[in-house]
Automatic annotation (TrEMBL):
EC number: 1.1.1.94
Recorded coiled-coil stretches: none
The family this protein is said to belong to: Belongs to the NAD-dependent glycerol-3-phosphate dehydrogenase family.
Domain Glycerol-3-phosphate dehydrogenase NAD-dependent N-terminal positions: 7-167
This protein's name: Glycerol-3-phosphate dehydrogenase
Catalyses which reaction(s): sn-glycerol 3-phosphate + NADP(+) = dihydroxyacetone phosphate + NADPH + H(+)
Residue ranges occupied by any Glycerol-3-phosphate dehydrogenase NAD-dependent C-terminal domain in the UniProt entry: 187-325
Keyword terms, alphabetized: Lipid biosynthesis, Lipid metabolism, NAD, Oxidoreductase, Phospholipid biosynthesis, Phospholipid metabolism
Keyword Methyltransferase set for record: no
Species assigned in the record: Sphingobacterium bambusae
tRNA processing keyword on record: no
Length: 336
């Protein structure tokens, strides 16, 4: 029997979306890849030159010009598997004109490591609430995985989380290739919330580094952060089968907290050096998801009455404009 061709739709054209387009192109399973690119000038460039002019511009992409679109709804309706890969703050805008019927019967994958800011929901919860997508059809992609290393074909691992393991494997099968290994998980909420929290902790690490704290302090900060993460995800979903030391949690936290490619660490470093939030955002060409996540996680902390001093420190600095050196020194007295 001839293998059925799967249609994979990608929404987003930032560095992570571009890296995933490369993954899909380097996976030899029979499939058709459709790609929504928001900016018409970028779309035209990719059609002509097979490179993204704005992100990972040196990477050659295996894309068919006829499968590139400026209309997100067209991509969604034609796809069997839809991968959402925009910054969380821009997802609602990307899905304008899309309704629940367009997602019916499809696997919907979130590669977004953030919270919808004005909804205070992780992406999976937002999709379920607004588009009535069954939880079994929502798949979450976790790390540890930086786009820059994927583009360089350095061996990397993705965690694919879904309540239905068959659906997780179906998504994993179109992503894995000679430099991408996949790990399956059923901890949908833990993987998604972990991906949100690690950005806040990386931002905290960047603030501390910008203030002049060294590796010794950073090690203590990260070891406290993983325990704080466990406190949060256990409060949200205590019944899940998870090991907080697994790659999707500790591994993703480590790479985001320490890597030169971490935009959240870079953003935090700028704040520690004295940049305002606005000036740091203007200087960066990419979205630091930890900034938006910090405000949203405060609601989780209050809802469950949690002790999360690292998240609180970041929130006080970013949103209440408290002096970074004062807040970090206060936090330092609480770390163990």
């Amino acid at each position: 029997m001839e293998e059925t061709e799967q249609k994979i739709g990608m929404l987003g054209s930032g560095s992570w979306a571009t890296a995933m387009i490369k993954m899909l192109g380097d996976n030899h399973e029979k499939k058709q890849v459709l790609w929504w690119i928001r900016k018409e000038e970028d779309l035209a460039y990719v059609k002509t030159y097979k490179h993204n002019p704005t992100y990972l511009s040196a990477v050659e992409l295996r894309v068919d010009a006829d499968h590139l679109f400026s209309d997100a709804r067209t991509v969604i309706k034609q796809s069997d598997i839809v991968i959402l890969n925009t910054p969380s703050a821009y997802l609602k805008d990307a899905l304008k004109g899309v309704d629940a019927a367009d997602f019916k019967g499809k696997l919907v994958v979130t590669a977004i490591k953030g919270i919808i800011p004005d909804e205070n929901l992780i992406v999976g919860e937002y999709l379920s609430k607004i588009y009535q997508i069954p939880l079994a059809n929502i798949i979450v992609i976790g790390g540890p995985c930086h786009a820059e290393e994927v583009s360089a074909e350095k061996l990397s691992y993705l965690t694919i989380a879904a309540k239905d393991t068959a659906n997780a494997e179906r998504v994993a099968s179109v992503l894995r290739n000679r430099y991408i290994n996949t790990i399956l998980s059923t901890d949908v909420y833990g993987v998604e919330y972990g991906a949100v929290l690690k950005n806040i902790y990386a931002l905290a690490g960047g603030i501390c580094h910008g203030l002049g704290f060294g590796d010794n302090f950073m090690a203590v900060l990260v070891s406290n952060a993983i325990r704080e993460m466990e406190t949060c995800v256990m409060a949200i979903d205590p019944e899940a089968n998870r090991d907080i030391n697994a790659s999707a949690y500790l591994g993703d936290l480590l790479v985001t907290a320490y890597s030169q490619f971490s935009r959240n660490r870079t953003f935090g470093h700028m704040i520690g050096k004295g940049y305002t939030v606005q000036s740091a955002q203007l200087e960066m060409n990419m979205v630091a998801e930890g900034y938006y996540a910090s405000a949203c996680i405060q609601n989780i902390i209050q809802r469950y009455n949690l002790e999360m001093p690292i998240c609180n420190m970041v929130y006080q600095i970013l949103y209440n404009k408290q002096p970074a050196n004062v807040e970090v020194n206060t936090l330092a007295s609480k770390l163990t």
